[in-house]
Amino acid sequence: MTSVVELIVACPHCGLPNRHSQLAGLSYWLVRFWSDGWRDPIPPPNALYRCGVCGAAALRAQFADLGQLKMAEMAYDVDLLASGPDRVKVMQVLRRLTGADLSQALSWLQDGPSRIATGLRLDDRERLTGALGAMGAVCSIHAREIAPGSPAAWFAAPALQDADDVETLRAQLHAPGLDDEGETALRLALYQHWNAPFREASVTWLPGDQRDGAQQDNARRLASLLREHDDYERLLKANLARERSDHASASILLTGDFGDYEPLAARLRLLVETKQSAVAVFGPSDFE
Fold first, then answer.
1. What is the average per-residue pLDDT within 146-152?
2. SS3 call for 258
3. Which of 118-127, 225-234, 268-277 bottoms out in mean pLDDT, i.e. has the lowest?
4. Is the distance from CB of 105 to CB of 91 less than 8 angstroms?
5. Tell me, what DSSP letter sits at residue 286?
6. What is the DSSP string of 174-234?
7. Does 287 have pLDDT greater than 50?
8. Which residues share a beta bridge with 80?
9. Which residues does residue 77 pair with via DSSP β-bridges, in sequence order?
10. pTM of the predicted model, to two decimals?
11. What is the mean pLDDT of the chain?
């Protein structure tokens, strides 16, 4: 069985490969969503990363995918060394799991160490040796590579590093060739970063219209970039208005149906109606 370990990406600055871990199998219902679009357990898809080779930072989307880093595909040969005390049950297991006929199974039991299977995949090997071991038999396993993995150099490639500090994020706003999508991702990351202290219940909320000039400028520019024809971006834009205490504008933006995002819209409408401007956490109950 081939196991995918990581995605390999090329740095847009130096072109050299980096490993980028992929998180999978995380239950959607365990993710904490926040009203500003932040998700606690995993970074957003357009997060900013730093190359492990040259140290330059770039959006994830700017790292070119080179392929998947795979383990080599292995095959296993199994030898029966000793049948143990219950030869009859061992013979039954051999016939059932290897497809051997009665005479073949008997010869394996009588001839001493015998090669009873070749070229097994991992799950078949574990099934055979586990069943024989439960009967008291003793086996030896020989592994061999039947298909190469990814280039060995990829295993030595450095891993991408998070680069989400404010100064790096702001510097990327002046990177050449930055398009509206990239700028939106950067400004949203900045906005979420500046909201981070207020995710703690012990920190008093400071509305967006009372933040410093850089934060207010970023929020205004972000609002202008968010597209109202996109349901999710319209929700983010409504939340920006709400967090600036502009509940009238937020209410207008929240008018209509939001499709799959309707549970989020309903929660935001409630916050707007009750004149709450603080960043809020959304849990599984908001999707029921």
1. 76
2. coil
3. 118-127
4. yes
5. G
6. T-TT--HHHHHHHHHHHHHHHHGGGGSTTSPP--GGGS-HHHHHHHHHHHHHS-TTSHHHH
7. no
8. 114, 139
9. 142
10. 0.64
11. 86
pLDDT cut 90: percent of the chain above it: 51
DSSP letters, 115-163, are: EEEEEE-HHHHHHHHHHHHHTT-EEEEEEEEEE--S-HHHHHSPBPEE-
Segment holding 288, helix H or strand E: none
CA distance 142 to 156: 27
Residue 38, amino acid = W
Classify residue 79 by its DSSP letter. E
| Residue 243: closest CA among 181, 191, 165, 180 | 191
Question: What distance in Å separates the CA atoms of residue 208 and residue 249, rounded to the nearest whole number?
Answer: 14
- Measured between alpha carbons, how far is residue 35 from residues 21, 140, 182 in Å? 27, 57, 21
> In this model, does residue 31 exceed pLDDT 50?
yes
CB 54 within 8 A of CB 11: yes
Name, of 36-45, 155-164, 265-274, the range with top average pLDDT: 265-274
Q: Which of 8, 11, 18 minimizes the C-alpha distance to 63? A: 11
What does the chain come to in residues? 288
Tokens of 257: 């149906």
Q: Long-range contacts: 209-213, Cβ < 8 Å, 24+?
A: 209/244, 209/245, 209/246
253 is written with which tokens?
């933006």
- Taking the C-alpha atoms of residue 287 and residue 89, their distance in angstroms, rounded to an integer, is 53
Tokens representing residue 154 in the block: 């990829």
Radius of gyration, alpha carbons of the chain: 29
Q: Which two tokens stand for residue 110?
A: 């009588």
Give the integer Cα–Cα distance in Å for 74 and 148. Answer: 9
Beta bridge partners of 139: 80
